[in-house]
Amino acid sequence: MNTELHLESKGLNDLRIVAQQITAFGKEYNIWLLMGQMGAGKTTLSKAICSELGVVDLVQSPTFSLVNEYLTDEGRTIYHFDFYRIEDIVELVNIGIEEYFDSGNLCLIEWPEKISELIPDEYMKIFIEALEDDSRVIKLTKHD
User: Fold this and answer.
1) Higher confidence at residue 13 or residue 75?
2) pTM score
3) Which keywords describe this protein according to UniProt (predicted)?
4) String of b and e for 83-104 (b: at least 16 CB within 10 Å)?
5) DSSP for 5-40, written as a single string
6) Quick one: pLDDT at residue 1?
7) Domain CATH code at residue 124
């Protein structure tokens, strides 16, 4: 089983193809960790992934709400988290983070390194590196 995949995006026009490749590669995982420096494109990639999966809701950064819930055209639920502003893990326990992760629904998680002790054992890591020419290198890694 291939546990790693490297992709490249030259710009916004490539995002649809990259999102297709990501969804195909990680289809057996419900927890997807989006990692990269500030401005690397985590939210933009989340939007492209949601579009590829048929999300009918407006996809936007959940920076202040911590989690956004989206529905797909097939009635599936996707949860989108942004933990950049998390100060205390107790906040997440209070919102029932484990129930989200254990729901069987896809969870897109930005800034997962802030909550590493709560991440389930099985996940796909999506690491985005922004290059000087505005292109992106995206490394996908499966973790069991």
Assistant:
1) 75
2) 0.90
3) ATP-binding, Cytoplasm, Magnesium, Metal-binding, Nucleotide-binding, tRNA processing
4) beeeeeeeebeeeebeebbeee
5) EEEEE-SGGGHHHHHHHHHHHTTT-SEEEEE-STTS
6) 54
7) 3.40.50.300
DSSP 3-state of 134 = coil
| Per-residue pLDDT, 91 | 84
Query: Burial of 140 by CB count in 10 Å (0-12 exposed, 13-18 middle, 19+ buried)?
Result: buried
Q: How much is the pLDDT for 57? A: 85
- The helix (run of H) or strand (run of E) holding residue 44 is helix 42-52
Q: Can you tell me the distance from the alpha carbon of 46 to that of 34, in angstroms, rounded to the nearest whole number?
A: 8
pLDDT at 12: 65
* Structural domains counted in the chain: 1
* Residue 41 belongs to domain spanning: 4-143
Averaged pLDDT for residues 129-134: 82
Residues 55 and 26: beta-carbon distance below 8 Å: no
User: What dihedral angle (degrees, nearest 10) is formed by the CA atoms of 3, 140, 106, 121?
Assistant: 50
Alpha carbons within 13 angstroms on the beta-carbon side of residue 119 total 23
The predicted-structure confidence for 63-73, as pLDDT tens digits, reads as follows 777 899 999 99
